[in-house]
Write a structure and sequence with these properties.
The protein has one domain (4-146): Hotdog Thioesterase (Thiol Ester Dehydrase, Chain A, Roll). It is an alpha+beta fold. The longest helix is centred in the first third of the chain and has 10 residues, at 20-29. The chain has 4 helices and 5 strands. A 5-stranded antiparallel β-sheet has the order 1-3-4-5-2, with no helix packed on it. The radius of gyration is 18 Å and the shape is elongated. Strand 4 and strand 5 form a beta hairpin. It has helices at 20-29, 40-45, 58-61, 70-74; strands at 14-17, 81-90, 99-114, 117-129, 135-146.
Length: 150
């Protein structure tokens, strides 16, 4: 089960370089058909400095995170983990050419009882800071660890 002593735990920061081609691929994958995601002229006409990222693009950035183990870091059994949802709070534009530094931490852990028994909700937050030192996004996600089967 999750180690409640890990509330406040911080992962080492990592960097994401936002690439125009990756934005276009992601837009295609999520069927974001607005030309601002693929055409620099359309993006600039819409007021962006370059091609912006679609709303959930930051989830892809987690693939560039250092390969740490949630099992080791938090004492979580991944065989009993479900995704519990996520909230994106955009504080500024993220566009092609940006270099983002991601700071991740465990915000809270909560024990609950569900229809199948105990579960632990682990709330994590990633803060994305661009190359100008501006916080442009906060991504809060909940991971649910189900209790052992009885």
């Amino acid at each position: 089960m999750a180690d409640f002593g890990k509330i406040g735990f911080e992962w080492p920061p990592y960097t994401i370089e936002v690439e125009r081609g990756k934005i276009a691929e992601f837009a295609l994958a999520v069927r974001a058909s607005d030309p601002v995601y693929t055409d620099r002229a359309a993006a600039r006409a819409a007021g962006y400095a370059d091609v912006p990222v679609p709303p959930t693009f930051s989830a892809v950035g987690q693939h560039w995170a250092p390969k740490t183990s949630v099992e080791d870091d938090l004492g979580v059994d991944l065989k009993r983990v479900l995704a519990g949802g996520a909230d994106w709070e955009y504080l500024g534009d993220i566009v092609a050419g940006d270099v983002l530094t991601v700071h991740g931490r465990v915000v809270d852990m909560v024990e609950k009882r569900g229809g199948r028994g105990p579960m632990t909700l682990i709330i994590r937050e990633n803060t994305f800071v661009n190359q100008r030192g501006e916080t442009v996004l906060r991504l809060r996600g909940t991971m649910i660890e189900l209790g052992a089967a009885s």
